[in-house]
Design a protein that fits this description.
GO terms for molecular function: DNA binding. The protein contains 2 helices and 8 strands. By secondary structure, the protein is mainly β. Strands 1, 2, 3, 4, 5, 6, 7 and 8 form an 8-stranded mixed sheet that branches. A hairpin with a 2-residue loop joins strand 7 and strand 8 (118-123). The mean pLDDT is 89.
Length: 133
Amino acid sequence: MEQVHLFTKKLKPTHISHALSFPTRVLEAFPIPEGAHVMDFEAADATDNAWRFCLSTRLTGAYPKPVLLRSSWRRFVEQKGLAPEDRVVFFMERDEANDMIRRYTVRAQRKVMVLMGQDVWVDVEHLPLYGLM
């Protein structure tokens, strides 16, 4: 099983209060049915809990502008206690033998320090282990 990094996004206030925009380039990893503009999918977090998200693309305009709808995204934000400057990282696991997507994963992370000039990010579920909650 191969894990493929889809994207990392540092959260802004609008991502916290509204919707999470996806890079258009990752749409190929989400098989939205022909003629449709929404797709539900599940992503497992750092503790292997499944989160149901709804990915939507707009019907008009020059590009699809994919977003996770607020209705599915907001619960994740609230449960994880996300704030501006935190980040989310999305991956997909691909079965190399038959080139099938096996599952998506999502990580909610917070920057805890800068070490030797590099940002150190920790999954929010693990912050208590570092005494950072």
